[in-house]
Design goal:
InterPro entries: 2C_sensor_his_kinase, HAMP_dom, HATPase_C_sf, HATPase_dom, His_kinase_dom, HisK_dim/P_dom, HisK_dim/P_sf, Sig_transdc_His_kin-like_C. It is a multi-pass membrane protein. It holds the Pfam family HisKA. GO terms for molecular function: ATP binding; phosphorelay sensor kinase activity. With 441 residues, this protein is an alpha+beta fold. Among the domains are: 9-160, Sensor histidine kinase RisS, periplasmic domain (Beta-Lactamase), CATH 3.30.450.300; 300-440, Histidine kinase-like ATPase, C-terminal domain (Heat Shock Protein 90), CATH 3.30.565. It is built from 10 helices and 12 strands. It has helices at 2-8, 13-65, 69-82, 107-118, 158-199, 213-260, 269-298, 310-323, 343-360, 409-419; strands at residues 86-91, 99-100, 123-130, 133-140, 143-150, 306-309, 327-333, 338-341, 363-371, 374-381, 423-428, 434-440. Helix 6 (213-260) packs antiparallel against helix 7. The radius of gyration is 48 Å and the shape is rod-shaped.
Length: 441
């Protein structure tokens, strides 16, 4: 059954959306028509049929009791003028058809039922011979009485107006809904097309925000994702470009050292001791740089986010930093503060920040507190700081290699924070050095 229904249902979102609009609309109109037919129309039709039948019974009773022909003619004239019934007497005539021919609606059945209940004579009701008159022929013992009743006394012509109105309003509402739905679907299609183009590696730029609120939120999320991926690719490309630049210097020194080694004769170890120490230092430097490159390129996407209590988390990072020689003067954490994050990745980011503060500053102060949209973490030092015009530049890979670093510490830290949906900013510290502000959602 489910597979059969799926074959019938449209596959496109527009078709299914229109079907969702059309089915309730049709059901509502069908219920309205059924209520109209089943209650109001039938009640009014029975009352109209009873009224005409009562006039016919009155006419039959009067014609049976009036003996003079002049009196009968007078009553027939009165019935035509006041009851709107045209009566014609056919003496000796016989009916050959009985009952009623049927038309759409309950009027024919109601009139036949009322006549059958009110009179004891056979009759035939003809609805089709004249569009404006209902002809009723009653078989009496000595002839046939023809009664022409106005159709408007029995037929409710407004039912067709109601049906036309219901159908027209349904079509109009469906067309309006189709236009609005098409505009909403157009925004979704544009988002899907942009995602496909982005997947093919084409730079399409940010998507224009349009459509419903949910579609706009999806477009905003897509633009942010696109920006993060471009930034991610740009940083990784910068790393690949910087590998050859940073490794070229120690490789050149190694090549020169090896070129200075004699290729013939007897070589004493003490004579090459200084050169060997230099080469070992170059290799260690290369290992350090390659480790940093790999750590940056690997990222922390495989770790599962979890809720972490900030107080013990920061204390662990501070304890490790103190073992490395950092001077952490104060740690202030709001009681009960928690954050949803990848703990290993954030520990690495915070460790990089404390290591930078240790190498360039002195005393370090750490503060963590809750904000409206998440958690704010401040790392302050009393070092020389960074000039405002260079604060954005130091986030680029290989920007600074002073103090034995590779210029990737701040880049890695901000990359981790942004992967959590947060951000990192640099500012002047109240202690005179640099303040690093981390915001986590």
């Amino acid at each position: 059954m489910e597979k059969s229904v799926r074959r019938v249902l449209p596959r496109s979102l527009l078709g299914r959306s229109l079907l969702i609009v059309l089915i309730p609309l049709l059901v509502t109109q069908a219920i309205s028509l059924e209520l109209f037919y089943g209650n109001f129309l039938k009640v009014v039709s029975r009352r109209l049929s009873d009224s005409v039948t009562s006039d016919i019974v009155l006419s039959l009773n009067a014609l049976e009791h009036l003996q003079k022909q002049s009196d009968k003619a007078w009553f027939v004239a009165q019935a035509r003028d006041h009851l709107q019934l045209v009566e014609t007497w056919h003496p000796g005539a016989r009916l050959h058809r009985f009952g009623s021919n049927h038309i759409t609606g309950p009027m024919d059945d109601d009139l036949a039922h009322a006549l059958d209940t009110a009179i004891d004579y056979p009759f035939f009701v003809n609805w089709k011979s004249d569009p404006h008159t209902v002809k009723i022929a009653i078989q009496l013992p000595d002839g046939v009485l023809d009664v022409d009743a106005p159709r408007k006394r029995l037929d409710m012509g407004q039912i067709w107006l109601f049906v036309v109105w219901a159908f027209s309003s349904s079509v109009l509402l469906f067309v309006v809904a189709s236009l609005f739905m098409r505009n909403q679907i157009r925004a979704i299609r544009r988002l899907a097309r942009a995602a496909e183009q982005f997947g093919l590696g084409r730079d399409i730029g940010p998507i224009k925000l349009e459509g419903a609120q949910e579609v706009r939120k999806a477009a905003v999320a897509f633009n942010r994702m696109q920006d993060r991926i471009y930034r991610f690719v740009s940083q990784r490309t910068g790393v690949l470009a910087g590998v050859s630049h940073d490794l070229r210097t120690p490789l050149t020194r190694l090549r020169l050292s090896l070129a200075m080694v004699p290729r013939t004769g007897t070589i004493k170890g003490e004579e090459l001791s200084a050169d060997v120490d230099d080469m070992i230092g170059d290799i260690a430097e290369m290992e350090h740089m390659i480790g940093s490159y790999l750590a940056f390129a690997r990222g922390e996407g495989a770790e599962t986010p979890e809720h972490v209590e900030m107080a013990p988390f920061i204390e662990d990072v501070v304890a490790a930093a103190r073992r490395s020689g950092a001077t952490v003067a104060s740690v202030t954490v709001q009681p009960g503060l928690t954050a949803h994050m990848r703990p290993d990745a954030m520990k690495r980011a915070l460790t990089n920040l404390l290591d930078n503060a240790r190498r360039h500053g002195g005393a370090i102060a750490i503060t963590a507190y809750a904000i409206q949209d998440g958690v704010c973490l401040l790392v302050d030092d009393d070092g020389p700081g960074i000039r405002p015009e260079r604060r954005e530049a130091v986030f680029r890979a290989f920007e600074s290699g002073r103090g034995g670093g590779t210029g990737l510490g701040l880049t890695i830290s901000r990359d981790i924070v942004r992967a959590h949906g947060g951000d990192m900013e640099l500012d002047a510290s109240p202690a005179g050095g640099l303040r690093v502000k981390l915001v986590l959602p």
